[in-house]
Amino acid sequence: xxxxxxxxxxxxxxxxxxxxxxxxxxxxxxxxxxxxxxxxxxxxxxxxxxxxxxxxxxxxxxxxxxxxxxxxxxxxxxxxxxxxxxxxxxxxxxxxxxxxxxxxxxxxxxxxxxxxxxxxxxxxxxxxxxxxxxxxxxxxxxxxxxxxxxxxxxxxxxxxxxxxxxxxxxxxxxxxxxxxxxxxxxxxxxxxxxxxxxxxxxxxxxxxxxxxxxxxxxxxxxxxxxxxxxxxxxxxxxxxxxxxxxxxxxxxxxxxxxxxxxxxxxxxxxxxxxxxxxxxxxxxxxxxxxxxxxxxxxxxxxxxxxxxxxxxxxxxxx
Length: 318
Ligand code: CP
Hints:
alpha/beta; binds phosphoric acid mono(formamide)ester; 4-stranded parallel beta sheet
């Protein structure tokens, strides 16, 4: 989807570096700051960090559907003592025509101290960060980036594999429309991992090699020597025109099943959710010992606690 927001403001960005709009260009040290903070929070457990941000207020502004991101940001805010105020586009004055900028400025004027935004436009978070003084955190921006997802995927990968240098991660499925793929590619490449993309040609263009990744349309060839495969669902809400293939074709060529896992016994499986069971992952594969999916979700809360604490200016003790 083309952005409505790119270059739409002529004011100098007042970007607050405590926000998080993407992982693109992030140095290993910046990634490690969030990963180490999340690990420190995890060591303390979910129940011992309420003194970090007592009484602080963050807004969760959602223009798209969500289960994991919305709930784990809300849970994370509570775990650090902050209050999350949730605004869903479907019940907001956006439906009366109010702009994203005006929505954000009104929330800021109410004293909200940080804003998490999910929005279909890839440039929405960067745009809003340039319009507000409070930190803006990208909670998933169209086919742009999903940086907190990228961070907790990195944390999950390091838990499973240790140092990611030269580790081989395959990302398979609908890469073209995936903000998860982009944030993971930027994070993984920064930490020195090898990344291979696999999927139908219309969903994995050769252009992606410019990001320093390999493209291998044959999933079985891509999986040779891979440590982890990260599956992506077909983002039907972002498809313009025909689907790139029948679900049966996608399953047979790019789906991970128990049979495929038998051929790659050491392979770990990740998925950002929601899973379309029976297409990119079979039931058995999704719930198998290969699966790190619930580890990803467990880590999501700690990463979002770290990101919110940083946004609110709280120092996480290491
Ligand atoms: N992974 C993810 O962002 O899930 P939700 O769309 O449910 O938030």
